[in-house]
Amino acid sequence: MLERKALESLYEKHCKRGFTYAYGTAGFRYKADVLDTVMFTTGVLAGLRSIYLKGQTVGVMITASHNPPEDNGVKIVDPRGEMLEQSWEKHATDLANSASQSFTSFEQKLQELIVKLQLNSNAHGSITVARDSRESGPRLLTAFKTGTLVLPNLLVLDHGVLTTPQLHFLTSKANELPKNTSIDEKLYYQEFLSAWDEIAELCGIQSLPYALTIDAANGVGAPKVKEMLSQREMFNNTFRVVNDDWKTPSALNHLCGADFVKTNQKLPQGISNDTRAEHINCSFDGDADRIVFYYCDLQGQFQLLDGDKMATLFAKFFQELTQTAHLQDELALGVVQTAYANGSSTRYLEQVLGTPVKCTPTGVKHLHHEAVKFDIGIYFEANGHGTVVFSTKFSQLVDQKLADASHSTSAHKALQILSSFSKLINQTVGDAISDMLGVLAVLSILKWSPQKWDQEYTDLPNKLIKVLVPDRTVFKTTNAERQLVSPVGLQDQIDALVAKFDTARSFVRASGTEDAVRVYAEAATREQADRLASVVGELVEKY
Ligand code: G16
């Protein structure tokens, strides 16, 4: 490691004192002006993590995803493309908070970590980094890169501006492919477009069955999805991207994007209420790791097809394919949701499809870990964050059966489709672009309109609101965030309110990405859901 004076000089370049950081739902996320210190220490931490993992590449994404333009943040990605192992979240937080105190405490904490983890700080490590389109990105990237200089033998590959899922994907590829392979976003386009080509050929898809409008939240997803879809003739004239002004940072997520559409349950700016059945819309969030779909019914009413609808669509589709391939008894298929999942979606999965459903706390890191316990693990948060993961057993069985010529033509085709879908879906993390192609492929194969997809079950009316409180950390939950344990007595008051409404449910939890408490309510009618959210919100405001 560097000698003390050099270390101190790097520290003084970026670290400010006095802020206390907490590791949230998806890494550190705050107003950009307080992030320099934690970006510097994340440079060090990512290096330590790579050294700990014997030089495997660790990814770092500088983004605040769905948050407003003045925020920023950082997500750390482990070598296989998944979120940082949870035991390391504490190391990341401790290192950031020590640097926030003083140089001496940072130096001590760093030494302590090196000893505790038995690391050779001069060993080789590798980091891959990217950022979204935020104005503060370049400044925070500099702080991050300075942090990586603390450990002398780190190789840092800067990909510039990418979507978050592209960075997850490239991190996994950096560890999977031979060392001299050039790792860049072309790999991403090639991988998913070839999987799309395979499915299109197998299923005779010659063009998209719907005119597709993509709201890119004025974020990095705009140039990336255009670049990708423009590589295939079949997409020409069938898609258009609105809210694509990613070069104007103040426009990011403003009146548009997946979070706006899901929370407000209405069209984003730039999309009109087109009632044609052959039209479908979708919205990405600021770093393109979430997507929701929607359409307008014949009465011109906005209808949302959110993460729950995607989970159920994939569950039904994969269930039918495994049955046709005679693999239903050998492969375990399951869905993972959070407390935000609409009660109707859970009932549909369990009672109509007979699919096992697990519930975890909010955060991809929780859902992903539960989903990998299945051979086909489908996980989606209602907000549109999710993907499908396929086990090694899945790949082995499908390959084995494909090599065996004794089964029927329909079983063979089902096996081929299953195999191609496992390549079309970005298994490392929720990915707006890859999920979009996955959904479009399923709808094209089933010949389903958005209306038909929506009719599988009817959502219970629901409402999500944000409440500002003096200290959100007093709100602590249990039972996969469905019940509050603190403030004491508040849950009983919520339960008493819920009992006054029909088929109702409500829960309260502190956001891990914004300084707010979220209140969710669902009930038999729209009026009741709105009213319940509002009375629970008023209760929360008193704390
Ligand atoms: C992140 C997480 C998601 C989570 C969302 C909101 O998404 O990756 O799993 O649902 O934050 O979390 P919270 O309710 O704790 O604020 P993103 O797209 O903002 O990175």
Automatic annotation (TrEMBL):
Residues 185-292, 306-448 form the Phosphoacetylglucosamine mutase AMG1 domain. PROSITE patterns: PGM_PMM. One of its GO terms (molecular function) is phosphoacetylglucosamine mutase activity. It catalyses: N-acetyl-alpha-D-glucosamine 1-phosphate = N-acetyl-D-glucosamine 6-phosphate. The keyword Phosphoprotein applies. Mg(2+) binds at S65, D285, D287, D289. It is an enzyme of class 5 (isomerase). Residues 464-534 form the Alpha-D-phosphohexomutase C-terminal domain. GO terms for biological process: carbohydrate metabolic process; UDP-N-acetylglucosamine biosynthetic process. Keywords: Acetylation, Carbohydrate metabolism, Isomerase, Magnesium, Metal-binding, Phosphoprotein. Binds 1 Mg(2+) ion per subunit. Substrate binds at E381, A382, N383, R509, A510, S511, G512, T513, R518. Belongs to the phosphohexose mutase family. This is Phosphoacetylglucosamine mutase.
